[in-house]
Each structure stands twice: as structure tokens, then as C-alpha cells.
Write a structure and sequence with these properties.
382 residues; alpha/beta; CbiD-like; 2 domains; five-stranded mixed beta sheet; 38% helix; globular
């Protein structure tokens, strides 16, 4: 059952991601294959713990293969993929074990480095991949199937709909990406998101937390927990609203604020950009190219950085030139400058920049002390 959110006085319906649709279709196709019966609905749980009952469409069953579709529903936060059918076909693999995942028509292929999927691979991100394989495994176990099953995800409208997205700019060609982290698409206005962030900060202040740990979103949480070994229990999510975050932290008289962020977001602060959504500003590659030039890179290297599909790809070029430390250190110095300019010295601020591909990249001046404060708070509770 899809839930709702109250946003600016309106009741808005949540939707579900392409990853959820693909996993649901894969589970339904597997059940159909093993029972030789069509389904009207399929039950699935999202990574966020929500249980969904999704309608199954376009069912076909042959002797050794079954296929069906689940329609993407973006709720009241519509996008280009809203309403399209996402298909899965399941077939037995006699004499083999396990789940094999394949991609068919309408699934984009990654053509440039720096994305979650390797070059040449279908653009089915890691969490949807896990959702699909787990859903198929559950269905197989429930119907006592011990032989292997191959599942192919395909989107007949994928190539056409992809033209309305940013996929080509990211180097994903020929179709759509299968995405999603929580499995749910939540409609949220900017004002509502800022109010949510303020509420989280209020809670921390009431708990006596003087030193805030902040992330843009899931990537930062995962890195802080899994790589830095920090507790994320009392952290705050700022989304794109760094300016409002810093202003409110000063207002609430916190002692310090330590922001752990992916390079793709955090690098924008080095240009004084305090609202990091791409619709407001996207100076990521320009910033990396500028600081690479200042570190001694030639014009061709700077041009390659500017043409990179992602910040991870740009960082790869910088690393190849042996300029990573110098570039990231200079960027972190500028991030520190703009954070302090915003808070006017009334709050200790720090930031740590990382990349999923390249790991920890840099840390702002004196932030090692703020990082140590967070480590002391962890107390084994991650």
C-alpha cells in the first residue's frame, strides 16, 4: 500500500522507483514460471521496509518462460518514467544453480566511467540488483525450486523515454537506468524538506548534542558508517540546503558542524554555492578543471575533466595526472572559507569530501578534531 505525505497543506501520494517495479515484475514472473498461472498482483517489500501490493500486467506464459510487467507510478512527484511498463522475463536454467540477472531492450548501457555500474554493463544499479535477486530467490524458495533461474529486465519504451532524461549526459545510452535506494519516491517541496531538516536539528539540540554530524543523503551516511566507523544515529540530513543548515545551526547555537559529503555535492561549496541541487547550479566539473589547472595540469587535461560524465570520472583523470592531493586540498580550503563566511565565525565548521570510487579525498582545515569528536560519540553504536 502506497503511503502519503502532507506537504504545504496538501496530501501528496508517494510512488515507487524503477527498481521496485523491476523487482516486483521479476518476482511475479518467477512465480508464474513455477506455477504456470498468471498473477493479478504481487507482494514486495522495499529496502525501506514498506510492503507493497502491485498490479501485474501483460502476463505471458510459455513452456519454459514467463513474462509480465509492473507499471511505474511516481505518485505526485512525477517524472519522465511515470506510467511506463517495466517488464521481467523468467526462465529455468536446468543443471545450474542461483539467480542470473540480464538486461534486455530499453535498459541503458554504461559507456563512460564514474557511475555505479561498470562501463559496458547494463545500468541496473546495485540496490535494485539486490532487490531483484532477493525477490526471485524468495519466490523460488517458496515454490521449492532448486534449479537456477535467469531473469531478464526490459523496458520497451525505455530508449524513447530516456531521451527526456539526463542519461545521455551521464554516458548511459540506449535506454533507461533502473534506480532507487529506498524503493519509494517521496513527493517533497523544498520548504517542507527544510522544515524537516530544522526539526531534526531541534531534536538534536534538545538531546544535548552540541556537535552536529550532517550528510547530504544516503551516500554520506553509508560512507560515514562503513568507512569512517561513525554512528549515524544522531545525524542530520541536509539534502541540498547547506545555506539554511549553517544559518540554523548558528541560530540554535550548536558548537560545531561536521559535513560528510560526496564530491559531486560538496565541491559546489568551493564556489560558494549553498543550494547544491543541479537546477540551481552545476559547477562541479568546472571547479575540478580550474583547480587542476592551478595545480599544473595542461589545457587538454582540463578539457577532459570538463567533458567527464561524472565527478568520479573527473577525479580519475586528476588522479592519473598525480594531482589528486593538491587539487582536493585546495578545494577543501575554499570550502572551509565559504562555510566560515556563511557562519561569520560563530560556529566551528568542517567538511570531509569522499567518492564512492576513490574513497576519502580531503578534509577541511582543523576538521580532524571535529572528526575525532564524532568518533568519541560513536561508543560502539553505529
Amino acid at each position: 500500500m502506497i503511503s502519503y505525505r502532507i506537504v504545504e497543506g496538501r496530501k501528496l501520494r508517494c510512488g515507487y522507483t524503477t527498481g521496485t517495479c523491476a523487482a516486483a515484475a521479476a518476482k511475479a514472473a518467477t512465480i508464474m514460471l513455477l506455477t504456470n498461472m498468471s498473477l493479478e498482483k504481487v507482494e514486495i517489500s522495499t529496502p525501506g521496509g514498506e510492503k507493497l501490493s502491485l498490479r501485474v500486467e501483460e502476463c505471458t506464459i510459455k513452456e519454459c518462460e514467463a513474462a509480465c510487467a509492473v507499471r511505474k507510478d511516481a505518485g505526485d512527484d512525477t517524472d519522465a518514467t511515470d506510467g511506463i511498463l517495466i517488464f521481467a522475463a523468467a526462465k529455468r536454467m536446468p543443471g545450474r544453480k542461483g539467480i542470473e540477472l540480464a538486461a534486455g531492450i530499453g535498459i541503458g548501457i554504461v559507456t563512460q566511467p564514474g557511475l555505479a555500474c561498470s562501463v559496458g554493463m547494463p545500468a541496473i544499479n546495485p540496490i535494485p540488483r539486490k532487490m531483484i535477486t532477493e525477490a526471485v530467490s524468495q519466490a523460488a524458495h517458496a515454490h521449492s525450486c532448486e534449479e537456477g533461474i535467469q531473469v531478464t529486465i526490459f523496458i520497451p519504451q525505455g530508449e524513447e523515454v530516456a531521451k527526456k532524461t539526463f542519461n545521455s549526459r551521464l554516458g548511459i545510452l540506449g535506454g533507461l537506468s533502473v534506480l532507487g535506494t529506498s524503493g519509494i519516491v517521496e513527493p517533497m517541496s523544498e520548504e517542507a524538506m527544510i522544515k524537516t531538516m530544522f526539526a531534526e536539528m531541534d531534536v538534536q539540540k534538545c538531546k544535548g548534542n552540541k556537535d552536529l554530524l550532517v550528510f547530504f543523503g544516503n551516500y554520506g551516511q553509508d560512507f560515514a558508517r562503513d568507512v569512517l566507523g561513525l554512528s549515524i544515529r544522531d545525524a542530520v540530513i541536509c539534502s541540498n540546503f547547506v545555506g539554511e543548515l549553517l544559518d540554523y545551526a548558528v541560530f540554535k547555537r550548536f558548537r560545531s558542524l561536521f559535513l560528510v559529503g560526496h564530491a559531486g555535492k560538496l565541491v559546489k561549496l568551493a564556489q560558494g554555492v549553498m543550494q547544491t541541487h543541479s537546477k540551481y547550479a552545476d559547477c562541479r566539473l568546472q571547479t575540478f578543471a580550474l583547480y587542476a589547472l592551478l595545480a599544473g595540469a595542461d589545457n587538454q587535461t582540463a578539457y577532459s575533466i570538463m567533458k567527464a560524465a561524472t565527478t568520479d570520472a573527473a577525479l580519475g583523470i586528476i588522479k592519473e595526472q598525480g594531482l589528486e592531493k593538491q587539487v582536493t586540498q585546495s578545494i577543501c580550503e575554499k570550502i572551509d572559507y565559504y562555510m566560515q563566511q556563511r557562519v561569520k565565525g560563530k560556529l566551528r565548521t568542517g567538511a570531509l569530501m569522499f567518492s564512492n570510487m576513490h574513497g576519502q579525498l580531503g578534509i577541511t582545515i582543523d576538521s580532524e578534531k571535529l572528526l575525532e569528536l564524532q568518533r568519541q560519540k560513536t561508543g560502539g553504536n553505529i
